[in-house]
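Researcher: Sequence recovery benchmark, item below. Answer with residues only.
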């Protein structure tokens, strides 16, 4: 790359090969994300207290506070709730001859599920969705700053105010993440800002990514009728199909930018302290040195060690939840709609660099 790679200029090193991306993701703790390093303490926002932008020991402490609901046992307990949410949305779809799968299903489901888990009132789901969309768009800007636009600044302020007020309420819904974080803050395991910031992170991290997975799974199946027919005959391939969608159309195309905290050598390049690095997960997932026929969507692919959930200490906390939501959603959908078809042959993708998300997916 000829452009300067330092964070101020907006340039960055982009690495696309599987081995390099894997190596750089593992070194994440050696390369804290720039959002924290670049902004003076007096100007810090909720983002700076999120675990995604924290290094150990803060990262370890914060991650342990919110891990339990995302463990295997924690996620299994959510099966009935997710199935209920899925069926409610499918009931609405059933009433129409033709619907946009993204607007009618893939968009509302993840935010509804996270809202229940967090303990935010269900009637606020649209509000929460609008904020996550605005802030998610900011991550696509060249400087990777979610509050780069005026609307981004407002959305962050509104969301911060919302969660601050919500956490200040005397009674929280029992068994929810908000209740648990409020108790942790009272016990001084985290600060009130940290408690609020983790709620915001969970919404932001779990919304557009899971929306993308659901939409991309439907899209891959509808445009690969042979693989769809195979899945209908062998429903036990559902998990393997979801894994292949995660590889083939990775929802999170690149990890959030890192800044080298110490000199790093990668493929003979010397990355200096302060330079930015972008590990491109979506490209690594199609590296022919790692995956045979990488451009073929193969629901039986083995082995399939893609990097869609990242690696190292920042590896996705919500992986089991996302896989479970997709398994229940796509499983129920195929059961209830045996003749589902795409209405248009060409997909409309959102113009995004960070997320691989369909704008719409009309089905009948
Ligand atoms: C981190 C992908 C769903 C919560 C990450 C990272 C990736 C990722 C690649 C690492 C980012 C980096 O290193 O820069 C995905 C994908 C999802 C998904 C592809 C869906 C298909 C979710 C869900 C939640 C969630 C449903 C929770 C509700 C998180 C959190 C982190 C994270 C909290 C930060 C972890 C840390 O810094 O220790 N995710 N994610 N994700 N994800 Fe996910």
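Model:
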């Amino acid at each position: 790359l000829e452009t300067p790679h330092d964070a101020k200029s907006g340039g960055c090193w982009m690495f696309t090969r599987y081995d390099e991306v894997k190596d750089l993701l593992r070194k994440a703790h050696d390369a804290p994300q720039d959002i924290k390093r670049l902004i003076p303490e007096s100007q810090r926002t909720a983002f700076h207290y999120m675990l995604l932008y924290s290094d150990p020991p803060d990262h370890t402490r914060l991650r342990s506070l919110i891990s339990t609901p995302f463990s295997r046992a924690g996620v299994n307990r959510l099966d009935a709730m997710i199935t209920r949410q899925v069926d409610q949305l499918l009931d609405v779809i059933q009433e129409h001859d033709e619907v946009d799968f993204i607007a009618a299903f893939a968009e509302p489901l993840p935010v509804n599920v996270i809202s229940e888990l967090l303990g935010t009132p269900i009637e606020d789901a649209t509000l929460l969705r609008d904020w996550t969309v605005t802030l998610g768009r900011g991550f696509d800007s060249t400087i990777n700053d979610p509050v780069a636009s005026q609307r981004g600044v407002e959305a962050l302020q509104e969301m911060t105010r919302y969660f601050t007020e919500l956490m200040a309420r005397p009674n929280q819904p029992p068994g929810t993440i908000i209740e648990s974080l409020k108790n942790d803050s009272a016990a001084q395991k985290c600060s009130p800002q940290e408690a609020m910031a983790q709620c915001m992170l969970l919404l932001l991290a779990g919304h557009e990514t899971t929306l993308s997975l659901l939409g991309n799974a439907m899209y891959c199946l509808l445009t690969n009728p042979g693989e769809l027919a195979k899945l209908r005959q062998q429903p036990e391939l559902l998990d393997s199909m979801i894994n292949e969608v995660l590889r083939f159309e990775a929802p999170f195309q690149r990890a959030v930018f890192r800044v080298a905290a110490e000199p790093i050598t990668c493929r003979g390049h010397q990355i200096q302290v302060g330079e930015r690095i972008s590990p491109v997960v979506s490209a690594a997932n199609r590296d022919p040195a790692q995956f045979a026929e990488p451009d073929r969507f193969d629901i039986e692919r083995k082995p399939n060690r893609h990097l869609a959930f990242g690696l190292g200490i920042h590896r996705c906390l919500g992986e089991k939840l996302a896989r479970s939501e997709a398994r229940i959603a796509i499983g129920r959908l195929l059961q209830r709609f045996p003749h589902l078809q795409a209405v248009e042959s060409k997909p409309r993708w959102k113009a995004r660099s960070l997320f691989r998300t369909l704008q719409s997916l009309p089905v009948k």
